[in-house]
Amino acid sequence: MINDTEKSSLLKAAPRLIQIMRVLARHKFLRSLLGKKNLPPPKEVREAFEELGLVFLKFGQVLAMRRDLLPADYIKELELLHDDLPAMDISIVRSTVKAELGTPLSKLFLSFTEKPIAAATIAQVHEATIRDRRQVAVKVQRPGLKEIISKDIAALTYLVSLGEKFFPKLRVFDLPVIVREFAITLNRETDFSREARSMLLFRKALANIPDLWIPDVVKEYSGKTVLTMDFSAGERIDYYAKKHPEAMPQLMNILIKLTLQSIFEEGSFHADPHPGNVFVLPDGRLSLLDFGNTGELDEAMRESLILLLEAVVKGDAKAATEAYLEMASASEEVNHAALLVDMKAVLYDMHSGDMEAVSIGDAFDSLMSAGTRNGVHNPPEFVLLTRTFVILESLIRQLAPEHNYMKSFSEEIKRLTKKHFSPKQIKEKTIKLARDMERLIMDAPADTRRILRRIAEGNLGRVQAPALEKLAGDLSLNIKQLAGAIALAALVVSGTMLLFSKMGGWHHLLGVSMIIIGISGTIIGRIGTWFRDRGKH
């Protein structure tokens, strides 16, 4: 259903909606109302999206990621969508820079090339020199994007709602949710202040990789519609590979390392590592550009992702299903038994071939397809992450076809796992666990008394307060015992994980110590409870 706000937006977008309907009719979309057999050909879909401009073009690129939703021939055609556009006139660039930064372009820069070095749907990039004679790249946004996006999203929302009415089976795909998430992503991509923060975050997070360079942001020359950064005097990696094929294995390892490190350590990742965003500097370092499209994973999602990867590599369908469902939103419509069967089939196909040729992106694609068939709503973060792996693996196959991707991937995962169990990480997790347990124990008595007092003052008003206070005290004691038991159990589980890990050395010694402490504490607690209960009787 469309709410009042969406209706108002739709009313404003009515002229644009009429224009969209004409384009869709011309490209045979309206014939689909007659039934599934009358769907427009894939080429017509792509051409319609290109003709409709920015929002539909970007939406087509999003749909190209959803192999779990569309047939392969549509995906293949949508992957051909490109967002190169004719350059803006220099007068528009000047007015945008002045409106954003408050100073004429001629006074800000010593030099500014009028012809852009790149032009796309959202912005174009110019080479320039600032007052301290530093060479920079200036990204200038096309005017009026906010209004265009607002109108087209309103129209797209209406079209999706209309489609669900004519084809009820579409509801299982949650297309309105996909459109809402797409709108959020598109608005983020047009906020250059956010992109600047992402660049600074990645510079700091990946500073320990010596062969990687990420340009710095020139803050005083940047805003929401203008972004100025250090100029990358490098060459596109696909052009560089033709001249220096011997350098590709090392550069591919750097790409894998920065991708996995940013995902598992920082929870953020560059979601568009195609050749146009990866350059090689004259000194041989890798240069990563364009941080408008980045993904974010919270700690819970990262933990589930690690479990999913381990289960996929081991071929454990049950563990893979559980980890996958932890990442996805809960739904009563999920067919767990059928999902497990499909998961077993996916992992069987994967492990029956050459493991060196396995694609993580393709494996995740197959998992998403299995999930969609069985009622799972794939989280947008997982969709974006899958696309990132697909692009990365495609780049590696293109530039270094002999490179053992899975070997590099496994080695980097082992390094990150070892770091995860380092003394520093264990100390930090233990401190966090202790703080959480302390908060639970300290807050429980007051919370229990407060709840019981409210009950006493309400429906159970005849119950005497002293009796409630005694009950609260007993409950608080039980909660303390439960919290202690949870903490001791956590020690035993953590110790067991360390003991059975392949790291050996002090990890095993620490694991044995944690198990002994956990079991001893449990025994002492049980003895104390026995004596206390005996004293009461």
Number of strands: 11
Radius of gyration using CA atoms only: 28 Å
* Strand portion: 5-15%
The secondary-structure class comes to alpha+beta
Uncertain parts = 459-465
Q: Compute the number of structural domains.
A: 4
Q: What does the overall shape look like? A: globular
End-to-end separation in angstroms reads 64 Å
Major sheet: size, sense and barrel closure?
Answer: 5 strands, antiparallel
On the 0-100 scale, what is the average pLDDT? 80
Enumerate how many helices there are, as a single number. 21
Q: Which range best describes the helical content: under 10%, 10-25%, 25-40%, 40-55%, 55-70% or over 70%?
A: 55-70%
Which terms summarize this structure?
4 domains, Phosphorylase Kinase, domain 1, single chain, five-stranded antiparallel β-sheet, 63% helix, 537 residues, alpha+beta
Describe, in plain words, how this protein is organized in 3D:
By secondary structure, this protein is an alpha+beta fold. It folds into four domains: 4-83 and 147-189, no CATH class; 84-143 and 191-231, Phosphorylase Kinase, domain 1 (2-Layer Sandwich); 233-418, no CATH class; 423-536, no CATH class. Helix content is 63%, strand content 8%. It has 21 helices and eleven strands. The strands form three sheets. Strands 1, 2, 3, 4 and 6 form a five-stranded antiparallel beta sheet that branches. It has a four-stranded mixed beta sheet with strand order 5-10-9-7. The chain has a two-stranded antiparallel sheet with strand order 8-11. Strand 3 (123-130) and strand 4 form a beta hairpin. Helix 16 packs antiparallel against helix 17 (380-399) and helix 20 packs antiparallel against helix 21. The longest helix has 35 residues, at 423-457. The protein is globular.
